Amino acid sequence: MTSKNNPATVVSDVLPTAPAEKTPGSKSLSSARPLAAQQYLYFTETNTDRILDNLDGLRDMVFPRPPHLEGDGEPHSDQEFPSVCLIGLGRCGSNIALDVAELVYNARKFYLNEFSTEDKTLDKGYSPAQWIRNNLRLGGGKASKPVFLVEPLVMLGDLDKDIAGRIRFSRKGEKSGFLRDYSKMKIMDLSEVHAGGAGNAPILGQYLAKIILNKDTQRFSSPDWKMIHSYLIDSCGIKANQSRLYFSIFSAGGGTGSGMASEFGLAQQHSYMNKTFDTKPADEHDSKSGHAFVFEPIFTSGICVLPNISDHRSEMSEALHINAGRLLCKYLSEEWDFSYNFDNEDSSEASVKGRIRPWNAMMLISNDIMRYAEESDDGNIQNIDVNAMEKHANQYISQQIFNILTAQAVTTDYDQNYFRRAGIDIGETIRLDANDLFMSLAGPVAIAYAESVVPETPAPSNDKFKVFEKEPQRLNIDDLFFRSIDLPHFNKVTQAIEGISLLPIESKRYKASLEQYKNSGYDAAALHDLHFFKNCSSVVSIVSLPKDYKLSYMDLNRLKTHLNSLFPNTTLKRYALVIGASANLSLTTLIAKSPCLSDDFLTLIVAFIKRCFARNPYRFDDTLDNSILDFIIHEDFDEDRIDQLLNEFENPAKILDTNWYAIKPMYEKKYRELINDKDKFVSINDIRLSRDCVKKAIKYLREIYRHRIGKTKVISLNNHTGKTG
């Protein structure tokens, strides 16, 4: 280890606000600015007419006018934005967002019978397109009507000079015409701020995102940016912008996606939160904007791809683990502030605005999905192509988003009696709209997924003697539920990738627990003591049914029994029945909050803390590993012990090593030149995570670890026995 790596020299030379012990909480920002302003300097367009004009400009691009209507704005103004928006950030995120958009595009073409036989033979391996063809297949003779699919608005952003060229090149073999015809896809050209990635350092991705989001949109040379900004940030939740579900897709292990995603999320939430406190009288609105600014709830979710923890084929790059750990640590500290930090019970406007988190929920997908899927398919894991593996993860994510998209379009109402017979109160059912998701999901979320081909329903017969004939084969709901929580694997019948998106514990141990669970006749004792299941606070279970298939209420009741036994302490269980969205029956279970207690999650956070926070003696031994576990488990939280173990601020130089000396001033010069306002200058030092962030993340983990449920007891003032004599 060279002297350059000594924290004392690095911190003092490069990070001038350290050593932090002398100046706790020091900032280079002006102390005159309130805390919320210090944290969130995001530019928001305040001119309502300009916002509406920007939205109309974007509407013109995503809904091109037919030639005969050119110049006639009246019919065009009725076009509404899709209810769903996908924001793909970085290489990984933009690829997945593209995959989902192509799925929807191809599905619609498929329903219009526009798939040529040549198209069907293009992909011999597994792919999202093949899954969709299979899942939406119209069988010969079936009178199935096409399901209307919501085509999402897709925003792609990467710190890359030629993101458009990369996309075109990566899809040069396709013949569907997707890139040419999908007008709802827009590329965020951010190259004037930076054209070369974030150097595998999330703090740089975050800093560049701050520059982008703090700069007045009128001063961007890209004419599209002000329209995209108004759509994503200025107008989220208002009537003029009809999008209500926003999914930010990114890889946690890189620099661009993991750094930018949470910053974009915070800018959106900051704008949204400001609107909740902005109650202008109706007469202050002019005639153009008055009705357009009615405020409605939105649901935002990060979809975060986590790196492999342990890959027996090759040693993973430590930087990927550290980067992912930083994102998770930052996210949990923000979640703690937003959800649980009410020591002073301060609900004032300033307090609430100063405690925001980037998304309502963050769905976690492990990259290990690819590995397990390959292994389960008897593939030669030693020789697996990396690009093929990435496609598997993309497909799994695509499936989940696609299912949520289809659910947005379904209007079939619930049958209360049906739910009642299944033992489910109608109050436990939801639609998959923004309101319901907003109320049901918060914090880290894992996904369990499986699907089955449903048995054919025989045509009704008038022959009374056929009543006693053998019933048709029934769906095996036990097997469906088991496959949803199993290690990720291919379903060769449906071509879906099934299983759990994040393993509760290490794979061999989890596999053994699953075998015990199955062999015991689905007695959950082998599983429900895992914190992933035991400490889960809310579960949303989505059952998607083909149009003409009626799931037996006994099967639905059986599903409820499985959920009750596996998740013994959930405060909130919600069920959504989506009818007519696919040819197969699928089960999606969203598991909230407890995924942060999984092995993978904790391992990544500790990897980051050890590398970038730990004082010298504790950087390479097991002291911190054991201490973090103690902090979570013990009744009393010894915060002083954290002060002994960790420096006050993270040290980014621990990832980038000596290059940091050149990088930091170069990026800060960029900020000064592009923002051009001394009062809004933010140093990289100002966005470092602090020891306080680590404490908040641990407090969040402690909160989830202590989650319990109280069974409702009947209480009575009456001691009457019921006897009359």
Structure, described:
With 725 residues, the chain is of the alpha/beta class. The chain has a domain at 48-404: Rossmann fold (3-Layer(aba) Sandwich). The chain contains 27 helices and 12 strands. The protein has helices at residues 7-14, 35-39, 48-62, 90-111, 117-120, 128-135, 163-170, 178-181, 202-214, 223-234, 256-277, 318-339, 349-353, 368-376, 386-408, 416-421, 434-440, 477-485, 507-519, 531-534, 553-566, 599-612, 623-633, 639-645, 653-656, 660-675, 691-705, and strands spanning 84-89, 153-157, 185-188, 245-251, 299-306, 361-366, 443-452, 489-491, 496-500, 538-545, 572-579, 585-592. Strands 1, 2, 3, 4, 5, 6, 7, 8, 9, 10, 11 and 12 form a 12-stranded mixed sheet that branches. Helix 4 (90-111) packs parallel to helix 6 (128-135) and helix 12 (318-339) packs across helix 22. It is globular and about 85 Å long. The termini are far apart.
SSE arrangement:
Layout: H1 7-14, H2 35-39, H3 48-62, E1 84-89, H4 90-111, H5 117-120, H6 128-135, E2 153-157, H7 163-170, H8 178-181, E3 185-188, H9 202-214, H10 223-234, E4 245-251, H11 256-277, E5 299-306, H12 318-339, H13 349-353, E6 361-366, H14 368-376, H15 386-408, H16 416-421, H17 434-440, E7 443-452, H18 477-485, E8 489-491, E9 496-500, H19 507-519, H20 531-534, E10 538-545, H21 553-566, E11 572-579, E12 585-592, H22 599-612, H23 623-633, H24 639-645, H25 653-656, H26 660-675, H27 691-705
